[in-house]
# Entry
Amino acid sequence: MCRFIETIQVRDGELRNLTHHNRRMNETRKAVFGVSEQLDIRRYAEGCPVHGIHKCRVVYDREICEVAFSPYIMRLVHSLRLAYSDTVDYHYKSTDRKELEALYSLRGNQDDVLIVRNHLLTDTSIANVALEKEGVWYTPATPLLKGTKRAWLLEQGLLAECDIPADDIYSYSRIALFNAMIDFGSLFLDINRDTVIHI
# Structure
């Protein structure tokens, strides 16, 4: 049976952005398993660390199966290679990452891949992205995964959604990588032909 995950940032004992994580988990449970009962991750998060930044990994199917905590250190990304797949599908945050891992293996000497589907930018192997142009941050309208941090940033009006063709990437000045663990503003790359390889 397929299982799914939520990865939640824990900062000094606080489960961050929990409303969005609970919402995505319960929407996935309803769509995949037909389960309408609402679960709250907070009720399963015993032993939550109270100091520092940790990762809370929640594994679930119809019910929550596992909750584990581990210290978090951000993986630095200094360069990206565009990788292409028109069939990759990761719209549910599944434990099965075979397609993403296959694309990640195409990174060559770069730190990660920026995945292109149907000529449009989507995500890296681990993060949603936003690209800056003239002071405005745009995030792909059709990401592989609608991340919880992405949802929050859109609600706050900090990002605008639009289609971003891969061929237009060099018309943007910077790219930001972000997810539940990587705060927006923590990981930027200037966009040029050394940092983002378009082949």
In short: Helices lie at 18-33, 98-104, 148-155.
